[in-house]
C-alpha cells in the first residue's frame, strides 16, 4: 500500500511481519556452497552482518550471532552441521 505523499509502501502490519516456524534443508552444488561459505567467512572476518536467501526468505544474521559445529552419527551415516544462532530483531 502506498501512503499519500510517500513514494514507498507502508510497512507491513505486526501480524504480517510475524514469522512462522520452519525447518528445511536445501541442497546446493559444490560451487554454490563454496560461494555461500566464502561470503559468510568474509562477513565473519570483518565483523559484519551476513545476509542470505534460503527458500525465498531473506535472512540477516547479525555479527553477534553464536556459532557452533555439530557432528551426528547414526546408522552408519555421519552429518556435520555448521550452525549460526541469533534472536530475531524485535518488531517496532
Structure overview:
Helix content is 23%, strand content 30%. With 92 residues, it is an alpha+beta fold. The strands form two sheets. The chain has a two-stranded antiparallel ribbon with strand order 1-2. Strands 3-4 form a two-stranded antiparallel sheet. It is globular.
How far apart lie the N and C ends?
18 Å
What form results from the Cα inertia axes?
A: globular
Percent in helix: 10-25%
Count of individual helical segments: 2
Which helices and strands occur, and which strands form pairs?
Layout: H1 14-17, H2 30-46, E1 50-54, E2 57-61, E3 66-74, E4 77-85
Antiparallel strand pairs: 1-2, 3-4
Quick structural gist:
Helices cover 23% and strands 30% of the residues. The protein has two helices and four strands, in the order ααββββ. The protein has helices at 14-17, 30-46, and strands at residues 50-54, 57-61, 66-74, 77-85.
What are its keywords?
two-stranded antiparallel sheet, 4 strands, single chain, 23% helix, 92 residues, alpha+beta
Amino acid at each position: 500500500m502506498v501512503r499519500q505523499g510517500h513514494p514507498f509502501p507502508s510497512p507491513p502490519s505486526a501480524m504480517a511481519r510475524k514469522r512462522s516456524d520452519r525447518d528445511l534443508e536445501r541442497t546446493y552444488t559444490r560451487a554454490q556452497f563454496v560461494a555461500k561459505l566464502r561470503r559468510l567467512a568474509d562477513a565473519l572476518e570483518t565483523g559484519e552482518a551476513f545476509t542470505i536467501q534460503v527458500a525465498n526468505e531473506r535472512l540477516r544474521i547479525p555479527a553477534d550471532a553464536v556459532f557452533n559445529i555439530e557432528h551426528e552419527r547414526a546408522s552408519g551415516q555421519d552429518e556435520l552441521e555448521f550452525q549460526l544462532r541469533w534472536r530475531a530483531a524485535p518488531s517496532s
